[in-house]
Design a protein that fits this description.
- This protein is α+β, with helices and mostly antiparallel strands and 304 residues long.
- It has four helices and 23 strands.
- The strands form six sheets. Strands 11, 14, 16, 17, 18, 20, 22 and 23 form an eight-stranded antiparallel sheet that branches.
- It is elongated, with a radius of gyration of 24 Å.
- The structure holds zinc ion.
Length: 304
């Protein structure tokens, strides 16, 4: 064989190996882009967002809301004295940031170390809620041993989360009840400041089925002192939904649930004045307004 032909054959086999690898990598990237794109409202928006070094969904929020950060390069975002690692998903890196009700209104520059974006927090007016309860009910708040023991369990359940989004479909309301106490209300019990109500109370008859707000994994399902029969579901990426005061639990810790699946029944267990569902979302250990989630996912959050 002529040496030139031999060299050409060697070269051809080398380039075809490199070609195969490049093709495999391109295919993986194509799949990652398609997966992520399927989360946005429309393909054109997906394409536009994926070109940005760093995107905030949305970039303008109210006190009590949350936002999804999308980064092209990964890293972490410093926010309110904490560091939020960006987790790889699809063709980018993501983290959810809570904006507590007491966040000072204004503009906040955020960065992942490469890209940057500015978050605007707007003032939201929160009303007051006055509850009158029996002395026996009021005295429940003095049992700090039980309250603190429950808090440890809850913190442990929320300390780990699946490092991916466990949902794609919009979040659903767990109960179609009457809204009796909205999110963020300052609550007084028998005339004394008690807490900021970081949940929505949805009144419905005892026994009304309670549905999982979205797909996820049950990380706690048991009777607690103040919140009665309680469920926490991990939806991945440190997002959890909480259901309280149930008359019946139909799931166990460790169960996998799908959006709309019945997980229990409305009740009035724990510190409660009547049958209702106390429902909220948590990002890690910070509660966030559920109103932004219903009929949406964070990928579809937009500026108001
Ligand atoms: Zn409540």
């Amino acid at each position: 064989m002529d040496w030139l032909i031999a060299m050409m054959l060697v070269f051809q086999s080398l380039t075809s190996a490199a070609d195969t690898q490049a093709k495999a990598e391109a295919e993986l990237l194509r799949q990652a882009i398609a997966l992520e794109a399927s989360y946005y409202a429309e393909p054109a928006q997906a394409e536009r967002l994926m070109e940005e070094p760093m995107v905030l969904l949305p970039s303008t929020v109210d006190q009590g809301d949350a936002l999804l950060v999308r980064s092209r390069s990964g890293g972490e975002v410093a926010w309110q004295g904490r560091s939020y690692p960006l987790q790889e998903f699809g063709a980018g890196y993501f983290t959810l940031l809570p904006v507590p009700t007491d966040t000072k209104p204004g503009t906040y520059p955020l960065t992942d170390g490469h890209g940057s974006a500015v978050l605007t927090v707007k003032t939201k007016a929160f009303d007051t809620d006055r509850l009158t309860v029996t002395q026996e009910q009021e005295s429940m708040w003095q049992n700090t041993d039980r309250i603190n023991a429950d808090q440890k369990k809850i913190d442990l359940a929320r300390s780990k989360s699946e490092p991916r989004f466990l949902y794609r479909e919009p979040f659903v309301k767990p109960v179609n009840g009457r809204l009796t106490t909205p999110y963020g209300y300052t609550r007084y019990v028998n005339g004394v400041f008690n807490s900021i109500h970081r949940a929505v109370d949805l009144a419905a008859p005892t026994g009304t089925p309670v549905k999982a707000a979205n797909s996820g994994k049950v990380v706690l399902a048991e009777e607690l002192y103040l919140t009665g029969n309680s469920i926490y579901i991990d939806h991945g990426m440190h997002l959890f939904s909480q259901y309280a005061h149930l008359s019946k639990l139909s799931v166990r810790t460790g169960d996998t649930v799908t959006a709309g699946q019945v997980i229990g029944e409305v009740g009035s267990t724990g510190f409660s004045t009547g049958p209702h569902l106390h429902f909220t979302f948590w990002i890690g250990n910070t509660a966030t307004n559920p109103d932004r989630f219903f009929d949406k996912t964070p990928f579809r959050w937009q500026n108001k």
